[in-house]
Amino acid sequence: MIRLAVLDDYQHVAMQSADWSPLADRAEIVVFHDHLAGHDELVQRLATFDAVCIMRERTPMTAALIAALPRLKLIASTGRGNASIDLDAAAKHGVEVMHTNYSSTPTIEFTWAAILALARSIAVEAASVRAGHWQVGLGTELRGKTLGILGLGRIGAEVARIAQAFGMQVIAWSQNLTDEAASAVGVRRVSKDALLAQSDFLSIHTRLSDRTLGLIGAAELAAMKPTARLINSSRGPIVDEQALIDALSHGRLAGAAVDVFEVEPLAADHPFRTLTNVLTTPHIGYVTEEMYRTFYGDSVSNVVAWLDQRVRS
């Protein structure tokens, strides 16, 4: 019997999202519903486990953490890749890393939920009704507006196609985007400066890397229209968080929908929790029943395959 830790099951759904019975007589499974961020606390919690099942980047598997867990032999991560796992450290310490399948559908659909909610001030108007009031503002139509896509990959391209159904003009930019790739999905490639200046809605769909860290900072936000709205369902550090807070606080940007943050979970006193022109959601872009069934179902299969390989070797 091995010991398997399932981490960060915020919604208490991990065991209901898959059939774990193939591991019934092969693993002692312990599910943790809270989140630990401290290194020492994580080491203490995970010291007796042979394997961990992690949900995306919620608990980074750093070199220091891996080195402090000599019993650990398997990291079963959800998603096709996970930048928060130090793969070199895992290899050095003989820890195998396995991944699951992934679908872009939840994030694509969530992006449009966020855009529509921003355009019509859904959260503000709903809060007004709950507080006993009535209409408090005016929405804006999407038809004829310009949607800017920062990162026209798998997700960005689908977001762009849906924009066309709303009658929006779509422009895009990223470091490697070509005219051919943009035109293939009916999008016009522009410069970064033009993307910022022309977008009524700017949606971010690029990966976090050294090149994209802080890609949208104070200067970029200042170059946007004061009536523009920013949507980030990609990764928090792509946008300078304090610069965005400043722009929203001083009315230099009409609004933002933010689903990802520099530090997660979000601190209780974080300004995003109280700013009225930001739609703040708890990193739920990928969180659907269907996606969780894939994540946890594949994780079970991965652990079974890893155990079978151990028996054969």
From TrEMBL:
One of its GO terms (biological process) is amino acid biosynthetic process. Pfam families: 2-Hacid_dh, 2-Hacid_dh_C. One of its GO terms (molecular function) is oxidoreductase activity, acting on the CH-OH group of donors, NAD or NADP as acceptor. It comes from the Bacteria. Keywords: Amino-acid biosynthesis, NAD, Oxidoreductase. PANTHER family: D-ISOMER SPECIFIC 2-HYDROXYACID DEHYDROGENASE FAMILY PROTEIN (AFU_ORTHOLOGUE AFUA_6G10090). Belongs to the D-isomer specific 2-hydroxyacid dehydrogenase family. This is Hydroxyacid dehydrogenase. The lineage of its organism: Bacteria, Pseudomonadati, Pseudomonadota, Gammaproteobacteria, Lysobacterales.
